[in-house]
Every structure is written in C-alpha cells, then in structure tokens.
Model the fold of this input.
Amino acid sequence: MPSAPSPLSARNPAVQHLRRLFGRRRSRSEHGQYVVEGPTLVLEALASGVEVVEVYLDAGAPGGGVLAEVVMRAEERGVPVRHLAPGVLGRIADAVTPQPAMAVVAGRPMSLDELVGQARGGMVLVLAGVADPGNAGTLVRTAEAVGASGVVFGGASVDPLSPKTIRSSAGSLFRVPVATSPDPATAVAVLRDAGLTIVGATQSGDRPFDRYPWPDDVALVLGGEAQGLPPGLLGPADVVVSIPMAGQVESLNVAVAGSLLCFEWARRRSAWGYDSARFPARTSTPLT
Done:
C-alpha cells in the first residue's frame, strides 16, 4: 500500500502561490483566484456553485469533525485535498488563532455591465469607498438577506475577494453578484441609465429614510467610513436620505446604517406586495 504524500512545506510552489493569493490583491486579479479561510467557509464554498480548485488542511490539526466533512465534500466534488506541514497555514494567514483549512477558488468580480445585464431591478448596493473589510462583508451579507440584485465595490473600496471581506460576508459573497468599478460616479450613471432611482445616504439628507416612499428599483449609494458620501455623488442622487438620531450621536457605522436602509427598502416592498418570484434563490456562482 503506497504511503500518504508528505505534508507540503512553506517552500512548496503551491504554498507560495497560496500565500500570494491570500495577501495580494494583484495576485488575485492576475490569476482569477482567491482564498477562502476556515473550515466553515470552505464547506460553504463546496456547497455553492463556485469553482473550488484545491483544499488545504493543516496536517497537525486533529482529524474528524468538521475537517472530516471538508474532506468528504471535497472528494464528492472531485476537488484535490492537500495537507500542509504543521504551522504553515498559520504563517500564511498571520493570525493569532489560525484556521486549520483553506481553499483556493476560481473567480473574479463581474464587470458593471455584466451585473446590470443580470440584475432584474430591485436594489443594487453601491459602496463608494468602503475600505473596511468587516463593513463591506457585512453589507454583502445584508444584500443577500434583503434579496438585493448585487453589490458594486466602487473607487477606493476594499477588494471584495480579500480573505477578511469573504469571512465577514459569512459566505454571502459566493451567492450575491458583485462587481467592481474604479469610479463610483460612473457606476451611478450606468445604474440610472438602467432605470434605477439613485438614493444617497448622509447624516444630513433631504428627508428621513422612513418618510421616503422607496421605489421598487433602487441604487443605494453608501460612502466610506472616514469621509462619508463623496460630494461628487450628492448631485447625481435623485434623493439623499438620513437616519434621525437622538442624543449626541453624529453618525452610525456604515454597515449598521446601510443595513437599516436596506431593510427599510425590503419592508416597503413587502407592504406594497413584493413579488418574491422576481428574486428566486440563487444557486449559481456570481463570480466568473
């Protein structure tokens, strides 16, 4: 009986490729691949329609449990499973508590035209400079929860396929159509031409968000953590809404504010007879 292959060391070319994908946006773009970190998300990827290229496991991690399930699901899909020498995954992730599993997945964000061509109205979330991967991933998760048609990462926004963004999305990035656009103003113009109402959000908007009669088809534009909505996007907006607040609070975290606005849009659609048939459950990968 042949012996099992030796675990891969940090010098192995496949491991070095994994490290570059994990840490460099340029490498992810060049190769059309990204890294999924942690056994739970690896299972999410294997269960979704994304193309999982390889799975990597820490040879020093205890077997059984969720890791055994990862191996089983990978084998069912014909995905190679490779073991890394103890500690190698921890050095790749540079985490205090490294995860015992990673996967390389093939895929890139859509172009803006592709997203618009696929979307059938509804809500498109536009992130204009949301730089924190935790906020961005949370907003993608919210987008899935309200049945949004997609999310556009514009301008200086974080890479949607960075490991931290994917982790914060809790797997929603495997299912929600995501596009990138160098210029948020261009994205807004394209979405307006596609028939969406442009709704901006600032702390001193034209009207409170709960007094605005949200239409069916909306592009909700959210600014970055430091500067908020760029001035250049205030003019193109059809309306700018705000969230009234008590006390001395000046603003909310962008993920909190964006989630509140998304669910208000969803609530209004439900009240107006929202047709869920227009937004069936997504079973195929949005990343190409």
